[in-house]
Amino acid sequence: MKAVIQNEFGDSDVLLYTDVEFPKIRENEVLIKTEYTSVNYADIKKRMGNKGKGELPLTLGLDVAGTIEEVSDDSSFSKGDRVIAFPKAGSYAEYVVANEQLVFKIPDGLSFKQAATAPTVSILAYILIHEIGQVKKTDTIVIHSAAGGVGSMLVQLAKLAGVKKIIGTVGNISKEGYVKNLGADVVCTYETFVEDVLKLTNNSGANVIFDSVAGEVTSKSLECLALYGTLVQFGNSSGKLGTFKTSDVHSSCRNIKGFSLGTTRKHDPARLAGVAEKVLELFASEKIVLPIARVFDLSEVAQAHKLIESRNYEGKILIKL
């Protein structure tokens, strides 16, 4: 079967479209024929060796939408089921294997293409909004990288939850229209968001800030986080560590919470089933939708990575198999 592998860490040129051995399932696993997989920023970091190096050769990719081809004994799934899943050994491949706990049925009427936008970013965003950030309708919130995949979901889910004021940040203000169309009330750049947030809140600050950028953005976020506010840290796309002092939190009664979907998939996968069902229902009822920036063929994965790295896109990038 065809897959994309890499034998070394580096830029997108290390991605090799080639033939690999057909995968085999074990107990409590299913074999899935991939229809679509998505490209996430975590793929870029792992390709470069900056995120859990792993053993080479390796296949990148976090999630798939496809059809179950084979199940183990006493499985709750059947051949022909349409599903999304988090495969155990990458998803840039025609066939993948996933643990049943990380496989979720797609509702009738929801296309593979739209379902493929959902797994990583929407499940993550739902948990961030409702479980980690515990956002309330009366809150003013800030969503960094609001035009990206997770940001696009956070904005829509916050709007759906009736949040009072949603502020999105972007690297380029040309993305303002896109983010506002998703439901943001105000869009600003990383250079101006501190003063903009303070101005919009009469200097009281935002109640919840969602930070996937880290680096300088983390420390600047604390400059506009309200008393008793929460900074939710769930990534470092800047490639730099965000820092804060203990004095930034205790006297102001503020919280800093961290969350990783990867850690949760590994250590608490049962936590995801209920969330997956909810977000897939939201997609099926068209209450949320993730715009697709571009669809590439599997043989064009290197081009997809270059587009992700350029940050010159809005929404989700998919790979069609």
TrEMBL record:
| Gene3D superfamilies documented for this protein | Medium-chain alcohol dehydrogenases, catalytic domain, NAD(P)-binding Rossmann-like Domain
Q: What is this protein called?
A: Quinone oxidoreductase
Q: Please tell me whether the keyword ATP-binding is annotated for this protein.
A: no
UniProt cross-references to InterPro entries, sorted A to Z: ADH-like_C (IPR013149), ADH-like_N (IPR013154), ER (IPR020843), GroES-like_sf (IPR011032), NAD(P)-bd_dom_sf (IPR036291)
Pinpoint the Enoyl reductase (ER) domain residues: 10-319
**Superkingdom of source:** Bacteria
Q: Which UniProt keywords apply?
A: NADP, Oxidoreductase
